[in-house]
Amino acid sequence: MRDQEGPRPGRPRQADVSGRILTAARELIAARSWERISLDEVATRAGVAKTTLYRRWRSKDELAVATLEHALGPLPAATSVRAAVGWLAERVRDPGTRHVLVTLTSLSARDPDLRTMLRSRLRDPYVASLRDEQATREASATLAFDLVVGTLLHRAAMTGGITDGDVADVSDVAEQLMSPAADLPSRDAAGAP
Amino acid sequence: MRDQEGPRPGRPRQADVSGRILTAARELIAARSWERISLDEVATRAGVAKTTLYRRWRSKDELAVATLEHALGPLPAATSVRAAVGWLAERVRDPGTRHVLVTLTSLSARDPDLRTMLRSRLRDPYVASLRDEQATREASATLAFDLVVGTLLHRAAMTGGITDGDVADVSDVAEQLMSPAADLPSRDAAGAP
Amino acid sequence: MRDQEGPRPGRPRQADVSGRILTAARELIAARSWERISLDEVATRAGVAKTTLYRRWRSKDELAVATLEHALGPLPAATSVRAAVGWLAERVRDPGTRHVLVTLTSLSARDPDLRTMLRSRLRDPYVASLRDEQATREASATLAFDLVVGTLLHRAAMTGGITDGDVADVSDVAEQLMSPAADLPSRDAAGAP
Amino acid sequence: MRDQEGPRPGRPRQADVSGRILTAARELIAARSWERISLDEVATRAGVAKTTLYRRWRSKDELAVATLEHALGPLPAATSVRAAVGWLAERVRDPGTRHVLVTLTSLSARDPDLRTMLRSRLRDPYVASLRDEQATREASATLAFDLVVGTLLHRAAMTGGITDGDVADVSDVAEQLMSPAADLPSRDAAGAP
DNA sequence: AGTTAACCGAGACGGTACGTCGTGTCTTAGT
DNA sequence: ACTAAGACACGACGTACCGTCTCGGTTAACT
User: How far apart are CA C124 and CA C142, in angstroms?
Assistant: First the structure.
């Protein structure tokens, strides 16, 4: 979206509109897949015209990205690996948020821009905060992130939901991975597309 | 797909047609996301009419499932955790196969039938073979499967591909998980949709 | 539209569909201006999908042309100037037909193709039949056509309709124009765009 | 358009703005049909905001009317039928003016107000001046007007332009019509909508 | 050898959504 | 009050795709 650098000419955008749209999108996606949801429907539910929607985002995909960011909210100041994983797991357990995430990771398979965007706006900040807290290598933190999110998403894809047990299992693995004792051979962590 | 229960009257189906369609689908999906591929396109590339395609599969989703099965091929008789994970990782590394898989897991978020299908045709047989080989609990094997597939898919979604290092990292975690020494508290593994 | 040169492959077009669409268009245009009529509306009234409409005509303008042809019907074998003018006047007096005609002449101001089309499919055949009947010069017949149609359309634009008196007045002028005694200096009649 | 009834409070309107807009409209309409021209475009070409445009005219149609009046200019004091027809023909030959006229006559098919407006502001004054000059019946003068304008507009619609020959032909007919010798049966001329 | 029933290619069709454009209204800041 | 700039609601356009259908024509097995 746009940075606000002083008042621009013309009628200013209504402040609440984007929020209403994003909320409408998340609510709809909780109950149906993104492909089956029409932008007309999102617009109607948000009490807004479809053109307004296209004025703020270039395409349906970009709206999906914004919906994810809106659903995730700001990163918390993590205090422990378990807490950090817990925050992540909590988001992934929410059906709406999870479906947006699944949709986006699916789309990112063939969209480098989307990939970069997901990395820089979601994974990188998260990994950075995790690494600050725990004196661990970036590679481990990155692996932990991919493992937690990936495993939980895939399990949900297999069973339809995520149980407390699932979260605990994944937490165990992640904690072990991040512990100083973990002796993963120093391999290059994934970074470049 | 239909069961072939003895010879039926009328002109039999051309043997190679299904294979050509499935191959065309995999090739196309290697370069573009499934949502952006039209069945007309698949049909054209396979040198076939769209009608033929709908005579063999009921919907685009079912064609995706068949494409995945065709791409995965038969399960190998695994001899070790590392080898089993390697076989899985090799499939996931192939872009065409991976994209079909991503598409299907994404679709399964909203489709219980598809979920059941993926479990019974992909995960269950794999887990069974893994468990036979290694005297481990089913829960651990299932977790290992979800972890390997999920983590690798998610990493590919973040970076665009899967490196040898990625496979090795995931193998390490899976191996540790499957080892008899692994002392995960006995929690129920996910199973019901 | 297309010539039918033997059976072509694929499902043949439903015979009555074009007629239903054209009739629906004429009925709608009798009550509202062409610009205010949506193709969705035409399609709905014809009991047809919008896509069918676009399969048969490339644009809204082309549909308007077809509607005019359909509304005019075949040229009659005219027996006298007065009868020929009468046939023309009768068409122009029908609100639906007249409005299609007005719309098309208005559009043709900036569309050479449309102009050519109107000339070759409407004016030329009419003038030819008129000239065959009466042993007159083409220039006079063409002028008579433009005069009858143009004057009546413009009078309708001024008053909202066409009276018997209008038709009679115009007939008088046209008859005089076509009479052998008419001594118009031999000027080139309009032809090239 | 609004009447200017003495100085009103606040900032007065910039004098040249309306003229610039009307000129821009005429220039644009010379090259494209009015339906294909957007008000945004007119505003941009006039170096003006769309708001300004809507402050001065209520709708696109009203702007078209104003554009026509601006393009026609004041009625001349006609001295002869031939001169009067010449003045009319000259206006109609100018593409910009002609297209505005065509647009308005086309619109008037469905708009009684517009019809009344065209009659009272264009045809009636013209016919009055014609009748004053020549001692002829109103019916004849009115018919002459409709015949000249209608025929020329329709010929332009058929061929894309108006030649000297066209004007001469129409003048001949009009002159004959207005001559005292003309023995049209006394029929009521069109007047009521 | 002829019949039969399914196969196949081709394309029409209904329906839904997309993304764009245009009109007319509105809401700001600035003159 | 006027102007510039642009957001907004609404509605239509023309396109793309899905899944169904209806043709003509083909191909094997069964009578």
Answer: 8
Extents of the domains making up chain C: 15-59, 74-178
Q: Which residues contact C185 (CB under 8 A, 6 or more apart)?
A: D168
Nearest-5° Cα angle at D28, D25 to D33:
105
Residues B95/B141, Cβ–Cβ less than 8 Å: no
Overall CATH class of domain A15-58: mainly alpha
CA atoms within 13 A on the CB side of B61: 14
- Structure-token pair, residue C35: 């610009």
**Residue whose tokens read 């909320």:** A23
Domain D15-64 -> CATH class: mainly alpha
CA distance A96 to A94: 6
Give CATH for domain B15-60: 1.10.10.60
pLDDT in tens, C79-122: 787 888 889 999 999 988 999 899 899 888 878 888 888 898 88
CA→C1' distance for B54 and F23 (Å): 17
Residues 69-128 of A with CB under 8 A from B: 98-99, 102-103, 105-112, 115, 118-119, 123
- Could you give the percent of chain D with pLDDT greater than 70? 84
- Nearest residue: Cα versus C1' of E24: D59
**Dist CA D173 CA C173 (whole Å):** 8
Give me C142's structure tokens: 């063409």
Does the pLDDT at position C4 exceed 70? no
Q: What is the CATH number that goes with domain C15-59?
A: 1.10.10.60
